[in-house]
Amino acid sequence: MRYLPLTQADRSAMLDRIGVSSIDDLFVDVPEEARLSGPIGGLPLHAGEMAVERHMQRLSRRNLAAGDAPFFLGAGAYRHHVPASVDHVIQRGEFLTAYTPYQPEIAQGTLQMLFEFQTQVARLYGCAVANASMYDGSTACWEAVAMAGRVTRRKRVVLSGALHPHYAEVVRTMAKFTDDEIADALPSLQGTPDNEGLIARIDDETSCVVVQYPDILGRIPDLAAIAEAAHARGALLVAVNTEPVALGAIEAPGELGADIVVGEGQAIGVGLQFGGPYLGLFAVRDARHVRQMPGRLCGETVDAEGKRGFVLTLSTREQHIRREKATSNICTNSGLCALAFSVHMTLLGEEGLRRLAACNHSLACEAADRLAQIPGVELLNDSFFNEFTLRLGTDARQVVRRLADDGVLAGVSLGRLFPGVDALEDGLLVAVTETTTREDIETLASALQEALA
Predict the structure, then answer these.
(1) Is the peptide bond preceding residue 277 cis, with omega within 30 degrees of 0?
(2) Where are the beta strands (DSSP E) in 3-152?
(3) Parallel, antiparallel, or unpaired: how do β-strands 156-159 and 129-130 relate?
């Protein structure tokens, strides 16, 4: 059983037509160090389908899956319990096979779901309007920066040093194409965020200040003070949230003055999924800015007979308007992941979300107290939700690797997130959710104490 649509003669004819001698000539613009120099190691060059399946299954058994070990990984991707009913709903054919709601008369179910999703995100974020979702949190972060530039007509972006480094890297990469000036910094290993240092970097040319809430070290920055300082200079505050469950316990960013709130919705309904697909969330506090939002927006209306209906209200993207007037080139929204988020959020409700958040925080406090008792371990945070940073006094990457070999996924080392920054190499970011048991916490504590002895 094979899928080989082209013969060698077909390939030769195509290469001759476009004027190159080999397929390798098509990749000359890719830096040589980024290209494969030969076959992928560990994979057979040619085999039947069943043989390939067996080989891939053997490789998959080398993974240590989240459910197979005490799990304390976080840093933007969190393990939460997803009710079975979420998967049941999203696998219904009406939702699973639907493409995109261009024809409202035959897509009322999809449009209504997205409308409800937008309402949930807007309420969660404390904002006036949310869009129908983005691809993921990191690209939503960049879209917020681009939007702030359109609103303020400025080109300087101040990034908090405690913004997730992957989000910051996306912003820096995209800014190369827009000539935005990125003023960033490294996080400081102290118990509270350096709000004063961040505020000092805001000037009259700043379009926006980007702050993670809670930040990459698990701390809770003072958004209200940062918002006041940004607005005094005519800049916008962009708040980034990677753990939406936290907003069941801490105040919504929009209520603290954030102008644009973005984040990752993976923690609710979507699951880890080995890194994707994920779900970008995007909302604005002031409805006057709605036309500068990227992506698309579903709205409620009435039809010719006065019956309630739903439509795509706003789609200021390249598929619908001229490229030079588009707010973004995002092609669609993460519809199925948005549905999973919405179903899970509906099952929780406001009270359920608050109870879930309280459970996460309580278990995290227990874990932090227990781990801080280990000789040589220092708890960095003065405050946190379900994620906190430990200082181990030694390279945390080596400790994480040793514990993984022993069957414990201990957390994310700051040396991995910030490679080459010596001051951060002993930091370990530990996440605790409702899926963590007290037995898991004790197993981590024992393994960590032994590794540091």
Answers:
(1) yes
(2) 129-130
(3) unpaired
